[in-house]
Amino acid sequence: MPAIKIQGLTKDYGNNKGIFGVSFHIEEGEVFGFLGPNGAGKTTTIRHLLGFTKPQSGTSTILGLDSWKQSKEIHQHLGYLPAEIAFPANMTGAQIIQHAANMRGLKDMTLAQELITMFDLDPSPLIKRMSKGMKQKVGIVCAFIHDPKILILDEPTTGLDPLMQSVFVTLIHREKQKGKSILMSSHHFEEIEGTCDRIAMIRQGRLTSALNSQDFKHFDKTTYKITFRSLQDFHAIQKEEFTITDIQSEALAVLVEIEDLQINELIGSLGKKDVLSIREMKVSLEDSFMNFYKQGDHDHV
Amino acid sequence: MFNKPLFIHLIKTNRNLFFLIAGALTLLIGIVMSIFTPETMQEITQTSMDAPINPLGDISTLISFVSNQYFGNFALIFAIIYSIIFGNKLVADQVDKGSMAYHLSAPITRNQYTFTSALYLVSSLLIMFGLIFVTGYGVAELVQPGELPVKEFFLLTAGSFLLHLAISGITFFASCLFNRSSHSLALGAGLSVFFFAANLLSGMSDSLEFLKNATIITFYDTNAIIQNNSYEWKLSLLALLAVILYFFGMLVFKRKDLPL
């Protein structure tokens, strides 16, 4: 039984807003990255999973339980961190964490204490006096407090400083080792790259692609930017059998994409030329996202 | 349906405003009961004899003063404000601000949330009017023993409680219906204030008396209560209205999409 399963989920808000026929599933123990530009439908999908919104058509289940009808049972095994975090006014961080524990009938606060220490959080001030990052930490503690089987984290690191972001990544790794199933939406590429087993991208309410981690972690091609001192060498390389992806005539530079096995050939060839510089161009997940995001912009025009 | 940790949470987070309004109303009834002794009443009646219409209504006896001035004015305003603030705060405001996500991320049904909130609102009103009755009766017995007709005072307090139960039903229903505070207040506060204004105006001149038909405050007929004159069905209507509004508020909230 998959931890999370969404099948043909549709919610049409009109004006081409909403989600249309979204399907995916998350296996037990899997970390699933959910990506897409703002307003693409990430949060709408998550609202369905939490039972805040009723699907127009399609189904959404968590641990085999219907998200809309059995949300109470689901929330026993679910930790949720909303994108726009908000707490009841006039409470301190500590009271908010305590109340979250009370609502779950949780007596043992060792895990909460551990998380507070881990994120270096001082929960004593009133929540309205807290910065975005501090509120986010309180939200993280509340989401993880009951050691849930399933975690739904909507842009979990917004507001956290880089140090805390890496603490968070450590936490995700730890939870993954414990066999938790995690759905995480994010704009931080490194975060997704470093933690997720699979990713799905959503744009304009439609799921456009799903990638396995192998697809985005182990590229067997590398691109180098090579700048030459002389025009002669610059022209020479273009006649050789390398895949040139870009030519920058003014800088006398070329972008060469090669299979990793070809590297010796390239070095051999460059050895005979007067090379000013050679740099590896990082082809990361980030580039494919950037392309993906930009595509979205064109579609709007 | 009932959720104890949530109920305790509501008591804790809302106690300041509760004590402020309940305290003000308790203090006022204490003052009324200690100041308006038979001698004072007589003086007031004499000095206001010349006025063509007494804007305060009949205030010749302690119980009529309590019914017209206290329950018909002070308590009405304060308790309406209380219902408006809390009706909105318990549901719509939480949805609007997003903190409803925090509440509903717990293993709790929406019905449990709204039922517990409604129970909090109802029981806080009950305690408020309980305090008013106990304080009013206590002070009257202390300062002017035997002057306060206890049965009438009790019925006036209970009736006022039922009226405010119905008004809180309106604000609670509006709060469950809308996802935005502004909309919830427009309906809940708008209707409550309209009822109050219509009630106020209808007493001012004969030509405005038709406004009595436009406000539920009419069902809290203090004269009928004092004269023991078929007030029961009117108060029952208020109670029924409250039950219906609370029920449909919960029903609407259970079924709607939440933008959280």
UniProtKB/TrEMBL annotation, chain A:
Residues 4-229 form the ABC transporter domain. SUPFAM superfamilies: P-loop containing nucleoside triphosphate hydrolases (SSF52540). InterPro entries: AAA+_ATPase, ABC_transporter-like_ATP-bd, ABC_transporter-like_CS, ABC_transporter_ATP-binding, P-loop_NTPase. One of its GO terms (molecular function) is ATP binding. SMART domains: AAA (SM00382). The keyword Transmembrane helix does not apply. Pfam families: ABC_tran. Keywords: ATP-binding, Nucleotide-binding, Transport. Belongs to the ABC transporter superfamily. This is ABC transporter ATP-binding protein. It comes from Jeotgalibacillus proteolyticus.
